[in-house]
Description:
By secondary structure, this protein is an alpha+beta fold. The chain has one domain: Phosphoribosylformylglycinamidine synthase subunit PurS (Mth169, Chain: A, 2-Layer Sandwich). Helix content is about 30%, strand content about 35%. Strands 2-1-3 form a three-stranded antiparallel beta sheet, covered by helices on one side. The mean pLDDT is about 95.
Amino acid sequence: MSKSKAIVYIHLKDGVLDPQGKSIAQAMGNMGYNEFSSVRSGRYFELECDSRPDLDKRIDEVCRKLLSNPVIETYRVEMVS
């Protein structure tokens, strides 16, 4: 069976506070990197999977049920060769 790779990017929804991003932005300012006005943190996953007809649906299920919190986060999936 052929293999596929899905890259999943997870980000907080607009309007959701990001304490980790805020801390990073403050640290950057303290280090003299004042050109950055804000930082938003996120997560990144690489999923290596067997190719199958319903792969997109299965990846979406994993993202909704396990990798992200749909109440406060959004995700984007990119398939790569």
